[in-house]
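Q: Structure for this?
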Amino acid sequence: MLYNVAQLLKEHVGASRHYEIAGELQNVDEYNPGAVPVDGEVTFIRTPRGILAKGIAHLSLVQPCRRCLELTKADVRFDFEEEYIPSIDIETGAALPITDEDEEELIIDEHHILDLSEVLRQYAVIEASRGALCAVECKGLCPTCGANLNEGPCGCIRENLDPRLAELAKLLGSDQDRETERKNE
Ligand SMILES: [Zn+2]
Ligand SMILES: [Zn+2]
């Protein structure tokens, strides 16, 4: 995920380059150790201070299903936009001031190399935390006994309630589901 931006740094504000993203992110989070392939595209735009990286990326991440908590593999897509700051003046070779507010992953190194990987990793983690579904029809966990309802009914409703109340509970249950859906959107 390394890009040499020396040439672009010499150009006027607004100049740009477009690249395909094809590579790997390392150790995205606890559920995704090792290498995860990532693809997408990025445009680098010269700004008064540095380079704006703007693009879209896609990867496949293992995540817990937000209803039943089973690990599931889900596609993650996101737009990203961050400004990178050079650490060396491209014309003079002099070191440029870096302040505490400049985040480490957004600094272009002394060889004019811009590294997208940490930014993409952070965006991927945020996107993944919104929660995936193992299946659209995932039944989730029983709120009473915690059983995974995808593996079959746990019997809670049938045993504890009379049939009319069971119907009502089912309706309330599906309302709750929709409520959770909305919160997760
Ligand atoms: Zn599930
Ligand atoms: Zn149950």
